[in-house]
Amino acid sequence: MKFVPFTAHVRIEPRYGSTVMKSKRLEYWRDMQKLAVFAYEELIKQPSINIATPGGGQQTSASGFQYGGMGGMTPGTAVKPQIGQSPSQLMITGFYHSVAKNIQPYPEYTVFAGGEVLDGPGAHSWDSIPVVTINDEVADLKAVLIDALTLAFPAGIPFSIFRIDYSGIVYGDRGYTFPR
User: Fold this and answer.
1) What distances in angstroms separate CA 134 from CA 49, 108, 131, 161, 180, one per listed residue?
2) CA–CA dist 15, 30 (Å, integer)
3) 36 Cβ partners below 8 Å, 6+ apart?
4) What predicted TM-score, i.e. pTM, was given to this entire model?
5) What are the tens digits of pLDDT across the range 7-24?
């Protein structure tokens, strides 16, 4: 078994709280933090992933003793509000448990240079696509994340996987299309 590093960005749409508070920005920020805590609490239960620690951190605001210490911080997640065309995002950093052998992520290719024939792995994403094993692992990871977040978030909170950086290969926003 090996542990493959990943960073997942999840598009979230936080709800505003009550109209009692004067600052909508603070309510928006606190709602994103609550979604991050809900996500962390469900993701640590998943046997196929390990959430990185510290890897971010959100204030739990429930009790300061829940995750060790008086700070009340929940590790493993981070949030980012909407900025321009980039949506509000929840970031999850961790390691995916893989049973596959260590492989080169890009297929072999042949180059003719200086009268020699050279073989080797593709090294650039612009001239080759990842091998099937990597795509299968990303599809499995995405399914695990969607299942866990569906359980974690309150009903009616829309979300989608926006981007996954898996072992240095980007899927989603500014990367490859998610494998099926």
Assistant:
1) 16, 15, 6, 17, 12
2) 10
3) 56, 58, 74, 77, 78, 79, 90
4) 0.77
5) 999 998 877 655 555 567
